[in-house]
Amino acid sequence: MTLARPILAGLATVALMAGSAMAQDKPGPAAAVSEEDGKWSAEDGTPTFKVDDQGSVDWYTFSGFRRYHSECHVCHGPDGQGSSYAPALVKSVENIDYYTFTDIVVNGKKEGNLVMPSFGTNKNIMCYLDDIYIYLRAVGSGEVPRGRPAKHADKPASFTEAENACMG
Ligand code: HEC
């Protein structure tokens, strides 16, 4: 009798540890693993989002939120949720990879009556394509709620430099 309690407590601890180990073993393809100047990458090197301990999103996620809503929202609906006309991009980024995504935005896509325009010469989109992708990944993962991110990291100096170089 006296032994039962510690044994059960021990088992519960083991079960808890197994649970958290499993969660860490399966971080998902969008999990951020490395950072350079405030821009995060996933295991496969593709750009991704990061939410810090305070619930603040990285700058690119915030920038992507703004760019998405000025350039894509009109057809793809608010927060990448889709419309009667164009698909939900928060789902697309889980089904098509980064390279396919950028290829479609650069060159467009046409299926029947549905036309995704090509934006390859539109600097307001090309200069922020990673930002938009990162934002869609963030909302698609469920880690970042829909709507304007409440808190975000400061704009990195490297972002401003790249932006100026790209916009010319
Ligand atoms: C004028 C309306 C319109 C605008 C603006 C627009 N799209 Fe689209 N997009 C579409 C339509 C319609 C499709 C579906 C095309 C098809 O299936 O052939 C589509 C398809 C896509 C796809 C492929 C999705 C999939 O699951 O296959 C991607 C990626 C995409 N759009 C990204 C974007 C991004 C990023 C922006 C903003 C920079 C944007 N689109 C702006 C209409 C638009």
From TrEMBL:
<keyword id="KW-0732">Signal</keyword>
<keyword id="KW-0408">Iron</keyword>
<dbReference type="InterPro" id="IPR022411">
    <property type="entry name" value="C-typ_cyt_methanol_metab-rel"/>
</dbReference>
<feature type="domain" description="Cytochrome c">
    <location>
        <begin position="40"/>
        <end position="140"/>
    </location>
</feature>
<dbReference type="GO" id="GO:0009055">
    <property type="term" value="F:electron transfer activity"/>
</dbReference>
<dbReference type="InterPro" id="IPR036909">
    <property type="entry name" value="Cyt_c-like_dom_sf"/>
</dbReference>
<dbReference type="InterPro" id="IPR009056">
    <property type="entry name" value="Cyt_c-like_dom"/>
</dbReference>
<feature type="region of interest" description="Disordered">
    <location>
        <begin position="26"/>
        <end position="47"/>
    </location>
</feature>
<dbReference type="GO" id="GO:0020037">
    <property type="term" value="F:heme binding"/>
</dbReference>
<feature type="signal peptide">
    <location>
        <begin position="1"/>
        <end position="23"/>
    </location>
</feature>
<keyword id="KW-0349">Heme</keyword>
<protein>
    <submittedName>
        <fullName>Methanol metabolism-related c-type cytochrome</fullName>
    </submittedName>
</protein>
<dbReference type="GO" id="GO:0046872">
    <property type="term" value="F:metal ion binding"/>
</dbReference>
<keyword id="KW-0479">Metal-binding</keyword>
<dbReference type="Pfam" id="PF13442">
    <property type="entry name" value="Cytochrome_CBB3"/>
</dbReference>
